[in-house]
Amino acid sequence: MSQSPSALAKHGRWFNMSEIRATTISDAAGTGPITLTGQSAAKAHFGFNQDASTVFGMPTNTLSSQSFNVASYTDNGLGDATVALTSAMANTGFTFLSGMENANNTRTLEPTSTASSLDIITNDADTSSKLDKAGWAALMGDLA
User: Fold this and answer.
1) What are phi and psi of 9, to 5 degrees?
2) Concatenated DSSP letters for 22-84?
């Protein structure tokens, strides 16, 4: 059933749409971005590989090409890395979500991390010893 916009307004009907295409979505005044109420998205996400071999297409000591809001990655040694953000978080109260290439490994955020620089440690969960593995992370929260 297809109706013209004037017919929709005339009859006060609303129809579900399956697709929206736009190059720009702005606020009612047309001067800025829209406000997303009750919604959130990752403000940064990244993967890096400290493993000795290529893992999921990431060569050793590289940052994933799919990373977002990441300026750089530094391998500081066994199980120790720093990720610098392009746009800083508002503070250090953000949520850090992470995952690893193998089961029973952990990737944790160190308390020395700041709103723009993440100090990350990778450990074996059984022995707590540092190890080099590939992993991924995302940050949820507000940007500065």
Assistant:
1) -65, -40
2) -S----TTSSSPPP-TT----SEEEEEE-SSS-BTTB-TTEE-TT-BSEEEEEEEETTEEEEE
Q: Chain-centre distance of CA 5, in angstroms?
A: 38
| Number of separate helices (H) and strands (E) present in the chain | 1, 8
Token pair recorded at residue 141: 């929260």
CB atoms within 10 A of CB 78: 12
Measure the CA angle with vertex 119, ends 108 and 127; round to 5°: 40
pLDDT in tens, 92-131: 999 999 999 888 899 999 999 999 999 999 999 999 999 9
Lowest mean pLDDT among 12-16, 66-70, 138-142: 12-16
Tokens 């977002």 belong to residue: 68
Cα distance between residue 124 and residue 122, in whole Å: 7
Mean predicted confidence (pLDDT) in 18-46:
83
Instruction: Write the single-letter amino acid at 94.
Output: F
State the distance between the two ends of the chain, measured CA to CA, in whole angstroms.
47
